[in-house]
């Protein structure tokens, strides 16, 4: 068991956790600072679920594959409730990189009330993430009952406290832990695949957060993924989102 724990901890990856606080430049909900057109899906406006300041992310030790200036705006269409497993979901979740001076957007007149939420300021904390037991490829059959129970306790202790909003590192899956493969599969169907699932990075894990007034399906989680090469190029048009729920 000690070897399994050591192997698990050796795979730790840095990540940023989003926690309450800050000056409001990074926030969940609220009205985004956006000069461009408000995104729509099948004619309906998407809900703005987060605005993250890239300079603050980098100052906190965020991933070096992200740009260092501007804002990332995260949108999701609540009525469609995309699970991200089919190419028809394209456009139901959008990430926009705004690099200009902050300009408060005007909410569309047909934005539903449930797509509006007060701004909830957040800040960033540098920490580490650990792979799930599936990703870590733990051989449970090689462990006796006592060792398996003890290892399970260690895994639970390493889980981030909810709500687990996160940039970079390993995801905290609600269901299966093969999201990079799912992203690459859909990208190929959409005609911009051809890479490797290992190229995908966790851009934002957005947990259910009742304090911020946001719940994804049945206490689920949104996972925004991007290829590293696209992030480095400042291209957020191919971000893919997967929803997992209890």
Structural notes for this entry:
The chain has helices at residues 2-10, 54-59, 145-158, 179-190, 228-232; strands at 13-20, 27-28, 40-41, 44-45, 47-53, 71-76, 93-98, 120-129, 166-167, 200-207, 221-227, 240-244. The protein is of the alpha+beta class. A 7-stranded antiparallel β-sheet has the order 7-6-5-2-8-1-9. β3 and β4 (44-45) form a beta hairpin. The radius of gyration is 18 Å and the shape is globular. The model has no long low-confidence stretch (mean pLDDT 93).
Descriptive labels:
single chain, 246 residues, alpha+beta, 19% helix
Layout of helices and strands:
Blueprint: H1 2-10, E1 13-20, E2 27-28, E3 40-41, E4 44-45, E5 47-53, H2 54-59, E6 71-76, E7 93-98, E8 120-129, H3 145-158, E9 166-167, H4 179-190, E10 200-207, E11 221-227, H5 228-232, E12 240-244
Q: In brief, what are we looking at here?
A:
The protein has 246 residues and is α+β, with helices and mostly antiparallel strands. The chain has helices at residues 2-10, 54-59, 145-158, 179-190, 228-232, and strands at residues 13-20, 27-28, 40-41, 44-45, 47-53, 71-76, 93-98, 120-129, 166-167, 200-207, 221-227, 240-244. It has a 7-stranded antiparallel beta sheet. A 3-stranded antiparallel beta sheet has the order 10-11-12. Strands 3-4 form a two-stranded antiparallel ribbon.
